[in-house]
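W.,

You were right to be curious about this one. When I first looked at the sequence I had no strong expectations either way, so I just let the prediction run and decided to look at it fresh. Below is the sequence, 999 residues in total, followed by the output.
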Amino acid sequence: MSQPTHPPANYLRDLLAVALLWALVLAFFWRIALAGRVLASGDVFTYFYPYWAEATRAVRAGRLPLWNPYLFLGAPFLANSQVGVFYPLNWPLWLLLPAHQSVHVTIVLHLCLAALNAYLWGRTSLRLGRVGAWMTGVTFALGGYLGAQVEHVNQLQGLAWLPLALALWDQVCKSANRQIGKSANRQIGRTALVGLAAVIGLVFLAGHTQTAFISLVGLAVYGLGPALWRGLRRGEWGPATQRAARLVAAVGLGIALAAAQLVPTGELSRLSVRAGGLPFNERVSFSLSAFYLTRALLPGFGEPVPPEHIEHVAYIGVAGLALVAIAIYNTQRAIRNTQRIPHNLQSVILLLILGLFLALGLYNPVYLLLARFVPGFAHFRVPARWLALTATGAAALAGWGANASWYQRGRVEGRGLIAFAVALVTLAGWAVLGVHIGEGGRVSWPTVTGWAAGIGLALGLLLATRWAPRLATASLLGMTVAELYLAGLTLPHSRAAAVQTFTSLRPAIAHLLSAEREAGGPPARFLSMSDITFDPGDLPEIEVIYGPQLSADALYDTVIAAKQKEVLSPNLPLAFCVPALDGYDGGVLPLARYVTLQRAYLPEDEVSIDGRLRENLTAIPDGRWLSLFNVRHVITDKLHDAWLDDVFYDLQWGAHLGRGERAAVTHVPHLKATALGIVSYLEGGAALSDGTPVGVVEVGLGEGLTRTFELRAGQHTAEGLYGPDVAHAQATIGGHFWPPVHGEVEGGQPAGNDYVTRLRWQEPAAPTTVVVRATMPEGELVVRGVSLIDERTGGFQALVLSDQGRFRLAHSGDVKIYENLDVLPRSFLVPRGMVAADDEAALALMQRPSFDPAAEAILSEGAAVLAGGAGSERAADHSSQTRGGARVTHYAPERVEVEVSAEAPGYLVLTDAWYPGWEATVDGKPVPVYRADLLFRAVSVHTGNHHVAFSFRPVSLRVGASISLGGLVGLIVVAVRALSKAQRGDIMHVATGESLKGG
């Protein structure tokens, strides 16, 4: 391979080629790169925008974000690697830009890096000319896989470095060049090893551990595969051993560089829900079905990729496949003619095949074994993400094909062309048939038409390579770009919406922020239970404002985003600094004990390992749990409420009352009324005869006047599941409004009846109290809702009646927001401590009906000394009546200060999650931080006034930072020594010496 005669001019051509790649990235992603729109769907909206918003606030405040107080009752922030706190390319963006803009910039930046690194890989390792390397950059950076992963920001950041890692690995392993001395060659290899270690460190710091795992496996297969095969065939194990040693050294140094992130993440993973690996069904979730396999390899046109298949995208276009065919055909011809072929072609093909093989996941018996027994595979879901290796290998082969066609007149002829045509038709046919068989769906006609046109045009251009190779190759390149652009319109990034979709406040958010400002102190938490099937009240305005400037799909995403913000789901509370009871992660969070705590109020089979409560709760938890969790507000929708006879009934709460039990309306708004409407039914009262008294309703009308009404079976209410065996008549049926928890018959129709009645009084009056008491001899009286009614005017007022605590309606709009009037403060004193032997014992103690979180704390075993010795469950020696109070005077993510006034010894409980690294002082003296009520923090305090401070100083961070500093120093020393011993000309000679002439 001769060298370019005018290096500066040749480098300028390389720069122009890269500039064209970057221009294409901007053209493909102009909506977020140039138009200032936001991605309003997927993880980027509900996960990355919120996390980046918090990171931006912390960095601009000069604070290292260690703790997240807004999700999961408190959780580590930095240790959650998905945020990428130590990824160096994030910090300038956090300092300079708002969160949504910095996310967009990093997406575009890393697509440009992916294109650049793939181009460099093609030029230096694959020995491609500019055309071939350019094609590698196009198909890698703009192909379907990275395009579909745009919403997974940290995956994109990690994968952007994969081609550069492969290029540096080739440089590390390159044999001695005869044109220079062995010493210089060794120094160049060491320099490349340093670069490879740095790249591996960046991949780890990007934060997506699965991407790092896939990249390292791909690097090992690419670097060791051929050497191992040679060892198996010829018994030559020396090269494989040497390469393995170099790879271990690079990975070890890369891990050391990233230790500041990896050590805290490792500590978190031990306490994570993933500590023992995922449940097996989670490990193989989102596998690539064999029925969908070929559909994943072909582009789509005219219809969005379904969300359930966004991980199953790996196309490079029909023209790209034609270039792959040229590469394979000409390689086979070279082998037949005993010509030299690229030394790493086997590795590239191995990457492509391995990616497809592992992406099958559930449908691959080998993967089932790996997922069950091999670390790494057992800790990650979405096997389809192994398609990253397929996309990388396919990009390299497309570059080889373009290179062969442009420079070497490579083409596909005769039987090869026929075989390729048959293969394309088979791919398209199975894509259509497989979707139909596997899912009962269909591939759209625009897509099928696009495939047919693409196959015909690609075959024609392959034929044309015989007479006009460069024109045909240029046409294939242009066709590839056009296909990738059109197919990209089906991916989520093409549906970018107006910036206000993320930045504007919805009424529910504004109400919560305003309520917390008025309350003072640390903001209390909320629980969202609302579905998003409602229509926002400002839907017409949204359509008028944004309809003319957005596509139908983007407008749809805008509406969905508005509803997600209204219910603050799932991580959007973090974006607006509103603490939530739950959250969503899917990685190393939530903490395992957070998931265990859910079992206190959820059946075990309904507990979600990713933390989302809104999608699993069918009823609001008991008031004592809401109070313990510092939940002051509950957000619900109006989907199960009722309009009966032009009166609105709030059916969210209600009361299940057995004989002698009562429930009262906590807050009765002022309204002069003439009647009280009641929606109710009986449960277990089928044997009651007509007229049997089942309840008493007492309405306080002020000035000591109370009206008492008797509810009777068959007149005012009746058995909900009414049938021929019911002894009493049916009362007036108001409708069927039972929530899903009560069960539904086939077809989705409600199985039970709600009965409506009105209790009237003569003179209009403004009731001040409403109390319902059950008197039925058997079964329960279930009161669903009550409303005051002024029958003179048609006015009404829905009331909140609950047997779970005291609540009042604080806001009613698209959603309802209730205030919990019994909420415990974030920090409070309890007089007693009960020590539990383990988490299961603690959970059992908390599930006792008598458990009162304001009166006792269930402490972890570490508090046994305080309780008077080791043991299982026993009460601590503290007064049963600890009087006094606790007031939070300073609340920040990493530091909480509380002023305590205790008239007897007790425990100060802070209902933020306990985690290693939290330290406490009482009046400046260190004290142990106990784990209370499974998850929270507690310290022992004695009689008197005290200043208690909680500070988060994780040892894991200090250990990791020390290792990273040592690794960085070692990296710099090795790099400086290598560069000082190697001549710059030699480095450039080796780096470019195998590029094609003139390419």
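Here's what jumped out at me. The two ends are 11 Å apart (CA to CA). And, maybe more interesting for your project: The mean pLDDT is 88.

Coffee later to discuss?

I.
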